[in-house]
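INSTRUCTION: Work out how this chain folds

Fields: amino acid sequence; protein backbone structure tokens

Chain under study, with its fold:
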Amino acid sequence: MTTLFRPTYRSKNGQQRESSRWWVRYSLGGKTLRVGTGLTDKRAAELRAGEIVRRAEMQAAGISDPFEQHVTVPLREHVDDFLAELGSRDLNEKYVADRVTCLREFEEASAISRLSDLTPEVVTRWMGQLRGRKLSARSVNRRLAAVRQLGRWLRRARRLAFDPFDGVKPLNDKTDRRHVRRALTPAEITRLLDAARERPLEAARAARARAEVSELEVKRLERIGQTRALIYALALGTGLRRGELQRLRHADLDLEGGVLTVPAVSAKARCEQRVPLRKDLCERIRTFMARSGLRESGSPVFPTGSFPAIRTFWKDLECADIPRRDEDGRVVDFHALRTTFVSGLAAAGVHPRVAQALARHSSVDLTMSAYMDLSLLDLRGAVEELPLGDAQRASERHMAEEQSADALCRGLCRSTPTSAHFTALTRTREAGQQSADGDHRNDASRGHTKGLDGGAPDRVRTDDIQLGKLMLYQLSYGRAPEASGR
């Protein structure tokens, strides 16, 4: 039997007093045990007492709780184990470093030392602090993704029975986009490639106004410009990321088949991907490889020293008269070349699913939302293609007239016909029934006929549609044809 009690003690002056904290007394294995709960609230002490008795009985029965041994371990050790597992999975170094930074920041901000203190409220409070520091919604979601990944790992590694961060929703980053890239126009693409090709030599000549550039130096600078222009053209024509271009090897190029292979170690998705190459790009790569003389399969296509740095790309933009940030706040960086690639596919009328496959994205929504620049699309031309002109209005007017005609026909067929109506009906019937026998004609003149196609006899048969259309013709033009006019 389990009971709660407050033990008594004697004070220094010899008076007997009752403790403010609750204890639990229970029997186990023929022994009576007493354990302090450390709580002053009776309801909370009852819950703690039930947990104490449950653990004691499970331990006595030889049943161990797989999660109990991890509860007392400091949180930092769990985070270290999680990061060690990430490092062993051959992930991108930049990705792992970002996870380390986010989780260390969460440890310091939350000041949590035990797994039992991990709750959704703690993460929500931390997100509010991040927003108070004027961080964008995307930056907050990036940190939240690292913390939620830790929670899923704790449950998967059987260190917790549940995901402590399940239910925490990310912020809507679509309403707080601060780094929006734009696509380059065709004219800007031409200027950028020309600037990349010509700027190295022009900059050298401008810096050496008093001394001419040697012929050997001219060839070297021209080769640098051609290499840089080819890198930009590859990014614009294939949508390859900067890191994928840097790690591109000769063995990854199939110029005869027009295919470029992105190995799993270089791809962001960590799986091998194949990208088609344009014919003009294949020719430019073939010419570049013939001039460089590097044909080893394992060697990079673009050596480290020849790949343009970020500041070099900015100078090429300045030389091409392309602003790094437009009047709407949209920016142009190296990754904007990938945005230009996807937006160009959409402007060419490529199906969204094909654009997703060429961009190697996980979803069409990512391709169409984050990498689509609507300024390159002919939105006005699309609106002009809508069928809302005179033909559409004439069609609607024709449909309305037909509906009115049908309604009027039904009303006229139920009304009392005039002599002119009977004359028109007689002429219509005579023209349509010249091949009928005499009995059928006599029955039709009386308004009755025998059943057709197995129908029952003595059914009333009227020419509602013919009568209605003739009468509508008469009423529409305000006069009826005379009985003896023809």
Summary: The radius of gyration is 42 Å. The longest helix spans residues 215-238. The longest strand covers residues 23-28. The chain has four domains: 3-64, 71-175, 188-379, 389-430+460-486.
